[in-house]
Amino acid sequence: MVALRDDLRLALDRLAFTEKLGIVPDEWQEDFLRSSADRVLLNCSRQSGKSTMSAVIALHRALYHPDSLVLCLAPALRQSQELFGKIAGFYRDLGRPVAPQGERKLSLELENGSRIVTLPGSEKTIRGFSGANLLLVDEASRVDDELYFAIRPMLAVSGGSLIMLSSPYGRRGVFYEEWISGREWERFEVPASRCPRISQTFLKEEEETLPPFIYRQEYECSFEDTEDQVFTTEMIDRAVTDEIQPLFGTVG
Ligand SMILES: Nc1ncnc2c1ncn2[C@@H]1O[C@H](COP(=O)(O)OP(=O)(O)OP(=O)(O)O)[C@@H](O)[C@H]1O
Ligand SMILES: [Mg+2]
Whose CA is nearest to atom 28 of ligand 1? Predict the structure, then answer.
């Protein structure tokens, strides 16, 4: 039998690799797995499988590209740890096709020289790393701008890939800014209606229970005005357009 690590088909085809893990990808997941873009934004519904797919891509990178450095980042360590947990779980499911050199709670080091490392969302910790080949930012809409600006240089020399995955969280922050105006990205927008595991009945129940803007944010990929914002972006936009008379006198 050909060892998994030597199976050329799996090395070249992330879709075949995913199926080896027993996962039948959804339509959008298939497109994501086939993509060769090195800047990707996933604006996806809750529970649509964005962390799972990113974990598959991370493990594939580490197994089949020796000496890769894969970094998992999120606003809080608990979240990046969850992503790492998925990667480590898949690695074990496959029977550790490349032997481990160090298998720890927050990192996995392989004998082919690849490393997968989990990082908390603090700028100080990540500054020690350079030359990442793949950087995954989970819950990216909640990541601080400073953190984002600190991680980008890590890709400079390595020419590494950056995948930011999230459901939206208000019309602010780097994930939102990049989603609406970034030029370099391949974008995937996946509302809950495109996820075969989320039923219409469940969605209807959620829609009836949640405040409408939360429902749109969690399940419909919508960047909503945040709860703590007194004025909506639309109100602010209207207030600054020339056509509309200001409410309280004129300026100047
Ligand atoms: N193609 C698939 N086939 C079967 N199960 C899947 C598939 N994709 C994802 N799942 C399952 O769906 C669940 C949600 O996946 P995951 O945690 O990756 O979603 P998420 O979009 O990151 O959710 P959240 O927004 O809550 O972080 C998991 O139990 C995962 O195993
Ligand atoms: Mg997730």
Answer: 49
